[in-house]
Amino acid sequence: MAGSTLGTIFRITTWGESHGKGIGVVVDGCPAGLSLCEEDIQQMLDRRRPGQSKFTTQRSENDTVHILSGVFEGKTTGTPISMEIQNESQRSQDYSDIANYYRPGHADYTFDQKYGFRDYRGGGRSSGRETIGRVAAGAIAKKLLKEFGIEITAYSKEIGRIPIETFDKEEIERNPFRMPDAKAAQKVANYLKERMHECDSVGGMIECITSGLPTSLGDPVFEKLDANLAKAILSIGAIKGFEIGDGFAAAKTCGSENNDAFRLNNGKAVKMTNHSGGVLGGISDGSDLIFRAAVKPTPSIARTQQTITKDGKEIEVSVKGRHDPIIVPRAVVVVEAMTALVLIDALLLNMSSRLDYIKKIYLNAE
Amino acid sequence: MAGSTLGTIFRITTWGESHGKGIGVVVDGCPAGLSLCEEDIQQMLDRRRPGQSKFTTQRSENDTVHILSGVFEGKTTGTPISMEIQNESQRSQDYSDIANYYRPGHADYTFDQKYGFRDYRGGGRSSGRETIGRVAAGAIAKKLLKEFGIEITAYSKEIGRIPIETFDKEEIERNPFRMPDAKAAQKVANYLKERMHECDSVGGMIECITSGLPTSLGDPVFEKLDANLAKAILSIGAIKGFEIGDGFAAAKTCGSENNDAFRLNNGKAVKMTNHSGGVLGGISDGSDLIFRAAVKPTPSIARTQQTITKDGKEIEVSVKGRHDPIIVPRAVVVVEAMTALVLIDALLLNMSSRLDYIKKIYLNAE
Amino acid sequence: MAGSTLGTIFRITTWGESHGKGIGVVVDGCPAGLSLCEEDIQQMLDRRRPGQSKFTTQRSENDTVHILSGVFEGKTTGTPISMEIQNESQRSQDYSDIANYYRPGHADYTFDQKYGFRDYRGGGRSSGRETIGRVAAGAIAKKLLKEFGIEITAYSKEIGRIPIETFDKEEIERNPFRMPDAKAAQKVANYLKERMHECDSVGGMIECITSGLPTSLGDPVFEKLDANLAKAILSIGAIKGFEIGDGFAAAKTCGSENNDAFRLNNGKAVKMTNHSGGVLGGISDGSDLIFRAAVKPTPSIARTQQTITKDGKEIEVSVKGRHDPIIVPRAVVVVEAMTALVLIDALLLNMSSRLDYIKKIYLNAE
Amino acid sequence: MAGSTLGTIFRITTWGESHGKGIGVVVDGCPAGLSLCEEDIQQMLDRRRPGQSKFTTQRSENDTVHILSGVFEGKTTGTPISMEIQNESQRSQDYSDIANYYRPGHADYTFDQKYGFRDYRGGGRSSGRETIGRVAAGAIAKKLLKEFGIEITAYSKEIGRIPIETFDKEEIERNPFRMPDAKAAQKVANYLKERMHECDSVGGMIECITSGLPTSLGDPVFEKLDANLAKAILSIGAIKGFEIGDGFAAAKTCGSENNDAFRLNNGKAVKMTNHSGGVLGGISDGSDLIFRAAVKPTPSIARTQQTITKDGKEIEVSVKGRHDPIIVPRAVVVVEAMTALVLIDALLLNMSSRLDYIKKIYLNAE
Predict the structure, then answer these.
(1) How close does chain A come to B288, measured CA to CA in Å?
(2) Chains contacting C (3+ CB pairs below 8 angstroms)
(3) Distance set, CA B350 to CA A4, B362, D361 (Å)
(4) Among the ranges given (A43-52, B57-66, D161-170, D277-286), the one the predictor scored with the smallest mean pLDDT
(5) Residue B321 — left, alpha, or beta (φ > 0 → left; ψ -120 to 50 → alpha)?
(6) What is the DSSP letter of D23?
(7) Do D5 and A9 touch (CB under 8 A)?
(8) What pLDDT shows up at residue D268?
């Protein structure tokens, strides 16, 4: 089944494997008239790029984006925007040994079951490199949202078992862990060195806050804004959980604690608290949209593990290759991209919710 | 936007409001040849029905289903199955006062923002009664899955702050909380009485286990099985979080703890643990599929709360009407239904993943 | 596969069989704020209804529509509009003999091949009664389009081999054939009486003209406006051909004859001719949208025909029951409905084509 | 809106403009296990390529395809197949003059209306070069269909006003017009030289025959096989009409003439005639699938024509550049590609129509 397409109006289709010729994405349905150049995309790709610190894979990739269509004289034309990033550092020989066994925690076994065989080089389509297409498309979505004053900020809220204790937005991009708390980041660095020494990896939790979102995005029943966010976030390889607002903690509260009271501020409705995380009934309520995602530890570890071969033998393996001991900081960028993609689609879809909106476009009504 | 449709091949479309003429669903894409009668649907609707205990709304509804199309001589014909449940106990006068203000924790405010006005009677389309259509469709999905030995069991894992401590599957349907632990259920009953006395409500956590699932369901990238489950579950009104396998706890572990080792059992691949919850790379891995959902406390409480009116005044309200102090036990049934709907669609979509499968159908190949 | 849904934003799902309990449709994605009552729907259904003249089936059906959801205080709420029409005149015994053989020109054989068996009563899902859902939904689409000055008029252009020679719009609904030419209609009446005497049926051609359409509807490549119209029209049971503008005649011309020159009229672009039929590159060009559809003769005829039985015997049959000797006049209404459904969806989808449109909605920009 | 995607299971997304960097397509949902190499694609692209005779544009393009993903060790992996064809012969200066006026019969005017501006170089996205992506994807679809004995053959049935009079399949690829009649082709050559001398262009009619199709493809109501074919064919730039079986001629017949009788042949159902063109009720009936498409004359002609400029002046123009005086022969290849894409999707979708088919896959039932 065609599983590489996301979105209804702003729709993206990604392609590419870890050790194939490249990775790419086609963005179809981007409105005409947005200023766009490769640098807009590259900035976000650079944040996701490997090799930014000693805590990420040492695979060296420039991940240089090329826009192949859909932009003319510096503006989007309304037709598909095709973007391509060539793979430069394929060392497929690193992976030849994994052709015949199933790495624990990876999709090797399920791909073989589903398709009969697999492109085993670097995980093929199930590699983290697949997210490059998402990030390139997300960069366009983020730029569009910015035209409407909508800003998305994600960061590591906890890595290993070390949570942030303060919040300094400026700090996020200053440390290799994308933590808004320099002290916590230092603790994580120490913790991580120990784990790396033990040939182990760690997980963490990402939080994402969107400000400036108008009310009304999302649709009742199956296309709730939080439902689409949950799908988008869980579609990222290593994500194991999603919660919005108070999330799982809400399950432990009473209604009197969890309900957000409405008051007026200069005649405008405001919620006194935001336990709901910015949605009510699946529709954005005008307050900040806040959710969290759980990231499992990188499954590729150099420690000895038990597994089986393709032809049915029990073996012990130690996964070689260039792996991130922690993918949380790079996943932060992917979370932002996925959030942007869901929000822009919801924003465009909401335009047809009311007859008076439609009259604004076609009858120039007020 | 059309938000009331779910699924690609097995596709459902629901309709109806709390105090309109009825609630219904059209199931399109159900394969031909399944034995089906109204009793198959009614059984599952009865589990969701209000008035099963003193801990649910006292609104009295029989929720009797009528199959209007798509079944002939006791079997599905492959054409749309339309099902309708009439509303019997509309007491709209209970709700006339909520026409003009926004209940905290409800979708009243966002519906007015999105659509310009709303059917305020009993919450209209955002009422919990909307889930009747899901459960009716889910009953067909469950019956189909059973043909392949796939069984879905959901239950309350925690209510208020009281978790289950033992697991007795038979106990689930014996107590009003759908808890597999009679002692925990008794504690919950006591706790809930206190909260009800205080005009308050409580939330909880649901766990859902699917056994007998073949490998290979779900697609890489955006149509991962867990991503679609997350969307389906978050689309249920009061759900605020979703986690699969170890979920948020996985974020606190190391790779060496979280990876599931593969071994052989009678020549068949088995995982020694199931931290992943039954999916690897978004594709079912043959072990039990296990996820949890966080349910917020019922927002309708009789306590005094602060809110605003439609025409911009700050007021205090106490929500009247017939409300569940806890919706978790009834939501258990909805979770099962949504799970069944996602799984059957994934099962049907997976049929075209391999050329040799297609030859089995069209060339009668082995 | 789920084949009973049409549309992306304005999306309809139909259900029901000829001799089941009823026929219905769910319209999801209708913008909020449109005045709507059952009479709006009934008017269009009455035009499609059987028994309007001696040239249609004598099956007596009132085809009374009930709106079950989505409308509150006389206006659409933005949530699904469920409509139901009960079957009143099922005389299933008429059809018991067709359970075991395949009527030539009908879908009996292909349904049995596809699904293994079929609801044979009156053709089941493949009956012309299936179009009731389309017409009910189309009535809403037509009403919406009218808010923007868009009018759709279809009529019989030729029946049997008798074409119209004059065009009087007022005449269309005055004669039983929906021909805009009273004289041609009289000739058709005579011709048809002869064919009915011979137990035969006839076909014809429908033309549909839409005026008031803005430019810009339709999308390049696969979602061209004419492509979606072609699909919608060919999806009507007896339609065997579709052509837009000069259609098949254009294939016989030279470029110098077929191109439409542009000139200015009060500073506004106008085409001097309309060979293209109102689309250029699949996008509406502001001139009238004109297309034609070929309708095959009703396959149910009382004459002796050769066919086979379900269990493999060659037989001769004469199809009994109450059949239209000509379905063209009733199909005219279905063509209008399908056109309206395609146009409203294109109109809503086009809203997000330009960044400046989106700013009109969200930033209140001029 | 995202208009560049086609198909539900076997889904393609095309991108690219006439004078941009290239043209491409992503094929998602192709089953795993099909042998595939670039030569398979190149063969079909070569048939569509310009410069094959003096009757096509003299633009010189090799249209060399590169497969960038989705194929491993010579077989499709089930993941997206990205294909790219670079533009080599962009002579954008030829088109600078069309930046400011609207060519009659082209999409220049409607693109400007829809998007506010356009990539005018060579028609941008509305150029015939856009079909390269369709043909590359169609080559894969054709190869898949061949595994099931399904063969698609399209040819020119009439060019200018000159119809074929005999049918020799071997002749089709021997003459520059893809006519199965050498004599007719010779007449066309003479006729065309005259029109080219007059700086004019001509249209024609394409017929497409598919043999070996199983029964059961296509779905009732909106997803009829002929409806999806009509959409796919009308989505090709210059196509103005579609008819299946007897098509418009059927509208002039009686039921007794148009119905196809069923008989038995070695115990298997056969139709004695094929007026229906291979579908009954929108589902393939096992006989040859036959349809025709009307192609308008190339709108780009060097003759003087009247038009307007972007800034509202009336002018006379003569369109320069390298244009086909007749596109019918090249469109034949595109028609085959679109047919293959519709058929493979219908074939895959039909797999889930019956419970017993599903059991064949999952329970290994007979």
Answers:
(1) 14
(2) A, B, D
(3) 14, 16, 10
(4) B57-66
(5) left
(6) E
(7) no
(8) 94
